Amino acid sequence: MKNMELPFIREMFESIAPRYDLLNRLLSLSQDVYWRKTMVSAIEVPDNGVLLDAACGTGDVAIEILRQKGTDVSIFGVDFSVNMLMSAKNKIKSISDSHNIYFLAGNAFNLPFREETFDAITIAFGIRNICDKSSILKVFYDSLKSGGMLLVLELSTPGKGILLSLYLFYFKIILPFIGWLLSKNLKAYRYLPSSVATFPDPKSFAAIIRSAGFINVRWKSLTMGIVNLHVGCKKRSR
Questions:
Q1: Phi-psi region of 197 (alpha: psi -120 to 50; beta: other; left: phi over 0)
Q2: Which has the closest alpha carbon to 126: 99, 106, 101, 145?
Q3: What string of H, E and C letters represents the secondary structure of the chain?
């Protein structure tokens, strides 16, 4: 498995964790809240479903699942950054009825769960940081129950024209400067544009998801193509 970037990625997120939420809201103009809500609204799980949020960061997706799906579901968040998980755990302390959210330190390639555990798996803005996307998608597939859902939210580069020009100027010039100003980690916010630029286009990524075994694979573009929501399902057993 190609985990060559793992030490750098972990160090980067450990460093920016204290300002991560602030920067997300500021740099996306709070669109990140809308993107997560849209992803969670697309999840179809039973009332007592079990969900995994991989690369859970500071817990925003897990908290949104709790808000939309209620307290009968169980939500597990896994991340390799201890500082991000500390922020997530501190965040849920102020939320009543958060007893069904569990945050765990771990690597998505080595999930501490049995196969066919989850009714749905989400990963928001994390899969582009994983080199071997095919292998991690197969891990997710094996971790899902029969008929389970995978939902991937990821940044993208919009199409041609003036929107692309404005996007690239913001993403390559403005965003790294603001990121450095608030987090003092210029490397992290220079890495972000490069990681998005090298991420597969929606059609190509959908093909990768299918190659991992998923069916009913589809995607939806959000905010003029800045973000894509990919959805796939595990085939139901007979």
A1: alpha
A2: 106
A3: CCCCCHHHHHHHHHHHHHHHHHHHHHHCCCHHHHHHHHHHHCCCCCCCCEEEEECCCCCHHHHHHHHHHCCCCEEEEEECCHHHHHHHHHHHCCCCCCCCEEEEECCHHHCCCCCCCEEEEEEECCHHHCCCHHHHHHHHHHHEEEEEEEEEEEECCCCCCHHHHHHHHHHHHHHHHHHHHHHCCHHHHHHHHHHHHCCCCHHHHHHHHHHCCCEEEEEEEECCCCEEEEEEECCCCC
> What are φ and ψ of residue 181, in 5° steps?
-60, -40
pLDDT in tens, the chain (238 residues): 344 456 778 888 888 888 889 888 888 889 999 999 999 999 999 999 999 999 999 999 999 999 999 999 999 999 999 999 999 999 999 898 889 999 999 989 999 999 999 999 999 999 999 989 999 999 999 999 999 999 999 999 887 777 778 877 887 888 778 877 877 777 777 788 888 888 999 999 999 999 999 999 999 999 988 999 999 999 998 7
How far is residue 173's CA from residue 175's CA, in Å, rounded to a whole number? 6
Assigned token pair, 106: 């771990």
